[in-house]
Amino acid sequence: MRLLPHVAGCFGVVLTSLACATSADAGDAKDSPPIDRRILPIAEPTYPAYTELDVRNTEPPPPFEVTAPEKAPNVLIILIDDLGFGSTSTFGGPIPTPTLDRLAKGGLRYNNFHTTSLCSPTRVALKCGRNHHTANAGSIMETSTAYPGNTGKIPNRVAPLAEMLRLNGYSTGAFGKWHETAPWETSVSGPFDRWPVHQGFDKFYGFIGGETDQWAPLIYDGVKKVNPPKKDNYHFTEDMTDQAINWVKAQQSMTPDKPFFMYFATGATHAPHHVPKEWIAKFRGQFDEGWDKVREQTFERQKREGIIPEGTKLPPMPKDLASWESLPENNKKLFRRQAEVFAGFVGHTDHHIGRLVSAIEEIDEMDNTLVLYIAGDNGTSAEGGMVGMYNEMTYFNGVEEKVEDLIPLIDEWGSPATFPHMAAAWAVCFDAPFKWTKQVASDFGGTRNGMVVHWPNGIQKGGGLRKQFSHVIDVAPTILEAAELPEPTVVNGTPQVPIEGTSFLYTFNDGDAGERHTTQYFEMFGNRAIYRDGWLARTIHRAPWQTSGMQPLTDDVWELYNVHEDFSLATNLAEQHSEKLDEMQNLFMVEAAKYNVLPLDDRTIERANPALAGRPDLLGDRTTLTLYEGMEGMLENTFMNVKNRSFTITADIEIPEGGASGAILIQGGRFGGWSLHLRDGKPGYEYNWLGLNRYVIEGSEALPPGKSTVKLDFAYDGGGLGKGGTATLSVGDESVAKGRVDKTQPNLFSADETADVGLDNQTPVAQGIGYGPDETKFTGRIHKILLEVK
C-alpha cells in the first residue's frame, strides 16, 4: 500500500485504544496511546488516500470501532416512583418485596441515600450527576418557570449518563416513565432534543409525562405514539417489563461482548394506584390496625433489624393529620382499602422487576451487571389529601373529595373505573421513621429512599448495610468509575459542567470508609435544607397538601439536627447551637446562589399555567387553531387552552351513505374532558367534569349524507375560574341543541389523556361512542376543524 505523503499519518485502530500508525504497524495496537475518552464522541481517525490501482495489491486499514473498557459491567438502574423509606420489607416496611430482598442479600443496602423530593428533578439529577437546578430541573417539568435553574430545558452542557455510556460502546435502553421533557416540547413539532432517544438512549418504550393510566397508558416507542397491546387484563408495568426483557435478550444475542445500560423506571407506585385485583387481595386485612399502629410496627422492626440505629426516635405525625382512633368506622373502611391497593401496587411492581432480573440471570449476565434498585424517586406521595381521591385530577383542580362519595367506590378502588390516590396519613406511615413526605425537601421523609446495590463481580461480600451519606447525583459518577470511564469534558462539541456528585464506589467493599459526599443542599417549592458533615439545618415552609396560604419565606423558622445522632430528625437543636444554625443558614444561601436555586418559588398549581410561570407556551397568544384528520395524541400543554374562557369549534365534515358516528374532536378522557361527536348519527357535545358530573347537549336528528358543518359555541359565564357556561350546538346556520354546563375544570383535564381529531385515544370522554381509538374512530370524513378561543 502506498500512501500519499500529505495524508500519511494517523489513520488508526479503535478497539480499546487508538493507533496512529503506518502500514507497517497498522495491525499492532499494543503500543498505541489509549483513547482519550474525555472528549465524546471519540473522533474517527483520518484514513489515508491510496495510490495503488488494484485492490489486490493493498491491505485495508483496520476498522474503527469504539468499545467499552474490557471489564465494564452491564448497568441496570431500577427506579420506583413515589415509594417511601418505610414501605418495603427490605427496609423494615410492611409490604413484602422479595426481589429487592433477594438483591439485598447478595448485595448492599443503603440507608442514607437521598433524592430531591420530587419526580422530574430526581430523574434528571440521577442521569446527569449534577444538581437538579444545574440541569434546569428545579421542579417538575409542568411547573417550570423562566428563571435559570427552573426552565425545564436540560442544557447540552450537562450531558446525561446514557449518552456518555453510549459513546463509550454501550447499548442503551429506557423503559417506563420519563418526565424529563419540557411540556411545550412534546408535540409533533418537537424539538426532540430532550426526549429519551436524544438523551443517550438507543431504545425507549414508555410514557413521556409524570404519570399515566396503567390500564390505558399513553405509550411512545421512541418518539412515535403507539397503542398498547390488546390483551385481557393488560397492565403497563407488565408490558414495559416484557419490552425490557425482549430488548436485553436481543441485544445480548446480537452483541454479547457489548455491555448494556438499562434504565427501568416504573410508573408505579405513583398515582393512579392501578393494580390487578388478585394483588389487592393478597393484602386484605393487613392494614386494619391503621396508619398509627402500622407506622409504629415498622419503626420497631427497623430498629430490630438494624436498618436504623437503636436509639432512633419516632417523630409525631404532622398536626394536620388525624389519629386513626379518632376516625369514624366508615372512614377506616375506606382508608384500609386504600392501603391494600397501594401495597398490592408495590408487590405487583416488585414481582415484575423479579421477572426482569430472572431474564438477565437466564442469559448469564447477572454476575457482571451492576444493579441499582432505588426504592423511590422521593418519599411516598401525600398529594391524596386528607381522605384520598377517587380521581387524582381533583387535586389539580382544587376540588375536595368527601368520604361519603368515596365509600361506594371501595370495591372498584384500583380498577379502570378509578384514578385513585390514598390519604396523606398513609404516606407518612410508609415513610417511617420520618415525619414528612414527597415534596418536602427539608425532611428525610421526602428525600431519603432505600437503595440496594447488587454486583457480584464488584462486591466482595453481600448482605451488608452502608450508612455513608449519598445523593442521587452520586449515581452517575459511581457508574463511570465502575466502568473505568473518565468524566467527559466535552460531549457532542459542548464543554461540560463538571459532575457535582461523588462516586460511592468506595463503599462497595469498605463499610467503614469515611463519608465523601459531605455537603448537599435541598430545595423544592420553598421547603429547603442544607447538609454538611452530619448536621442538617432546615425549614418546613409548606405541607405537600398545602397549595395556597403559605407564610412569607422570610418568616420561616429554621431547625437544626445532628444527623449522626438523630437518624429521624426528631430532636431540634436550634436553641442549643444557635451559632451552628446561623452558619448553616449562611451556607444554604451560598450553595443556593452557586447552583441557581434562587430566587425561591413556593407556588405550586399556579405554575402549571404558562402565563403565570413565564415559561414558553407552544401556542402562546394564538386564538385560533386549525386541525385536520390524523392529528391525535396532542398533550394538554401542546393544545389550545379552552379552560375558563369562551370558545367555538367549527367542524367541516362529510357523511357517507348509511350515516356516520364517532369522535370529531375530543380532549381528555374518562376522568375529565369534553367531546364533540356523532352518536347514532346525531351531533352531540358532552362535558365530563372530573368523572363526577356529565353535561350532555345533543341534536335530535341524524345528519344526512354529504357535507355538513357542525358548530359548537361555548359561552363561558366568567367571574373566576372553573365557572359554568352555555353550550349551543348548530348544524350549518341552524341551532339544533342548547344546554348548561354548570361547572368546568379550571386547571387540568388530565396528565396523560390527549386531544384527538377523529378518534378518542385511551379512555373515552363521552359515553356511548365506544372505547379506544378503533371503536371511537369517526366513520365519515373530517375535512377541517377550526378551534377559536375568545
TrEMBL record:
The keyword Aminoacyl-tRNA synthetase does not apply. Pfam families: Sulfatase. It comes from the Bacteria. Residues 1-26 form the signal peptide. SUPFAM superfamilies: Alkaline phosphatase-like. The keyword Signal applies. Residues 73-483 form the Sulfatase N-terminal domain. Keywords: Signal. InterPro entries: Alkaline_phosphatase_core_sf, Sulfatase, Sulfatase_N. Belongs to the sulfatase family. This is Arylsulfatase. The lineage of its organism: Bacteria, Pseudomonadati, Planctomycetota, Planctomycetia, Pirellulales.
